[in-house]
Amino acid sequence: MKRNIQVLLLLLSGAGVLHITLLTEVYLRYVKEGLRIPLIVSGVLLLALGMVGAARDGFPFAKPTAEEPAEHADHDGDHGGGGHGHGHSSGPRIAWLLFLPALALLFFTPPALGAFTAARESDPAVSEDARFAPLPDRSPLVMPLSDFQARARQDTGRSLKGRTVRMTGFVTPGEDGGWYLTRLVLSCCAADAQSVKVRMHGAEAPQANSWVTVTGSWRPVGEVGTDSARAALDVAGMRRVPQPANPYADAVPPTA
Questions:
Q1: Is 181 exposed, middle or buried, given 0-12, 13-18 or 19+ CB atoms closer than 10 A?
Q2: pTM score, two decimals?
Q3: Could you tell me which CATH number the domain at 116-250 has?
Q4: What pLDDT shows up at residue 254?
Q5: What is the pLDDT of residues 90-148, one digit of tens each?
Q6: Positions of CATH 2.40.50 in the chain
Q7: pLDDT for position 218
Q8: What letters, b where the CB count within 10 A reaches 16 and e where it falls short, cover 231-245?
Q9: Which of 31, 39, 28 is nearest to 247 (CA)?
Q10: Would you say 171 and 209 are in contact if contact means Cβ atoms under 8 Å apart?
Q11: Cα-based distances in Å from 203 to 68, 116, 141, 181, 234
């Protein structure tokens, strides 16, 4: 029984990993895009190990091994012969819980991290030696939120002044009734996600977690180059957009 559970776990886990990496793009909700190949290799290895185990044990019609009578004998001895193997029955019941993550990869698509996570993170400290490359000469200027936030808080040259920018993200409600345009930045996987938020002014807050593209101009808040500076935008236009296949954003280095 225990070996059957192990084989099933290997097969289901391998199939689940390959499902989210080869047939869908769900893996992007867990890890960065660059980790797709290692995930595929891992899924293939899990399937291979499961098939080897199934062939070795005759799964799913595994026969009792030579060790099983001895294990039952020891168990009965420990309980005076009156236990009737209740310890062996509780073990497999608990082991079945291990199937839940494997089945989730196949049949359940969890949502990406969103406003709940972002609302609980504060702005990072300002770097004192940040340098920025010149911005392209086009309008509106399409920018990642991470680049806009870094320039709004650290660029003492004020390269955002007078520029019309366009950014895309999801809505995070603020504590005072305002709202933020937000993206989550991954270093490796969802476990280390950090939020990048830009405060929106001049537009009513859409529904939390909805994705929007906004166009507007930089609103200076605080003293640039210090921790008092905040990233903010005066919104001139906004439209709803579908959530992108990759809801997370890679970190954009602020220095040139």
A1: buried
A2: 0.61
A3: 2.40.50
A4: 44
A5: 445 665 666 666 666 666 666 655 565 666 555 665 666 577 888 999 999 999 998 99
A6: 116-250
A7: 96
A8: bbbebeebeeeeebe
A9: 28
A10: yes
A11: 69, 21, 20, 12, 8
